[in-house]
Amino acid sequence: MADARLIDGTAVARDIMNRTGEKAADFEKRTGAKPCLATVLVGEDPASVTYVRMKRNRCAKFGIESRHVPLPDTITTEELVGAITELSNDPSVHGILLQHPVPAHIDERAAFDAISAEKDVDGVTSQSFAAMAFGFDGFASCTPAGIMRLLDAYDVDPRGKHAVVIGRSAILGKPMSMLLLARDATVTVCHSKTTDLPSHVRNADIVVAAVGKPEFVRGEWIKPGAVVIDAGYNEGNVGDVEFDAAATRAGLITPVPGGVGPTTIAVLLEQTVTAAFRQQQIPAEA
Predict the structure, then answer these.
(1) Among this protein's residues, is 122 annotated catalytic?
(2) Which of 65, 144, 175, 213 is the most buried (most CB within 10 A)?
(3) Catalytic residue chosen out of the listed positions 55, 119, 174, 223
(4) Computed over its alpha carbons, how large is the radius of gyration of the chain?
């Protein structure tokens, strides 16, 4: 029997989406148009197709227009940048999501940075990362921002806590570290070259696992009472944390699925609606 309290990401996401739906309806009432999210998908990777479909279905449910832009996997970086630039210049599009990963021959960073900052509702551009790092106004990376919402919903104050982030990707590990630092956590970033990873994890009050390897973080590494956030999703609905063993030691833990995933999508759509209000220079009602 697990001792840890489960963090219900589905419930947290539902609250975010209900408020987002109300704001989307208010935007449509005031402008005559729905907030619009353009989803760009290069190729037909099955997982990416599924993710985009989920996001488009969620848009439809909460009053957000979804404009799907499918592109062939033979597209060049230059052509992809051109397509994204066109969306950035289209006033009827308020947010742009480039589904990642893109095919290996594409310069993903160049593609991400073609998204205008005001429409970067997925928080993937270099400008958005700088905003997170320096505390400027901008859009946060959706998964890290969703994780912060989970911590807030369960009254986990990062201030003074030792947080260990396992993973250093540009759209998860690094921005996660910046957001935790901004909330006064002491942050250790671990990765594939880290020596004696278990010792770092054993000292962590908050563990964020984002390595993309099933059950990589062993339950025995978890400090008793720690908060464990599993941002991994692997084949067979398995996260990056050895869940059953970790749950006997953690104080709070996210399940997979039903933890981080729902809040990621919720933050994406929330930021899309926020972007729509900002671009129309309409103050959103609280």
Answers:
(1) yes
(2) 144
(3) 55
(4) 19
CA dist., res. 246 & res. 120, Å (int): 35
Tell me if the bond preceding 101 is cis, omega within 30° of 0: yes
pLDDT of residue 2: 54
Which residue is catalytic, options 99, 205, 223, 230?
A: 99
Q: Is 167 annotated as a binding residue?
A: yes
The catalytically annotated residue of 34, 113, 119, 122 is: 122
Does residue 200 contact residue 190 with C-beta atoms inside 8 Å?
yes
Q: Which CATH superfamily is domain 25-119 in?
A: Leucine Dehydrogenase, chain A, domain 1 (3.40.50.10860)
User: Which segments in the chain show pLDDT lower than 50?
Assistant: 1, 286
Task: Kindly state which CATH superfamily the domain 142-262 is placed in.
Answer: NAD(P)-binding Rossmann-like Domain (3.40.50.720)
Residue pLDDT, tens place only, 15-62: 999 999 999 999 999 999 999 999 999 999 998 999 899 999 999 999
User: Any catalytic annotation for residue 157?
Assistant: no
Catalytic residue status for 55: yes
Please report the pLDDT score of residue 192 as a whole number: 86
Write down the pLDDT at residue 47.
87
CA separation for the pair 48, 43 (Å, rounded): 9
Neighbours of 33 (CB within 10 A): 13
> 209 — phi, psi (to 5°)?
-100, 120
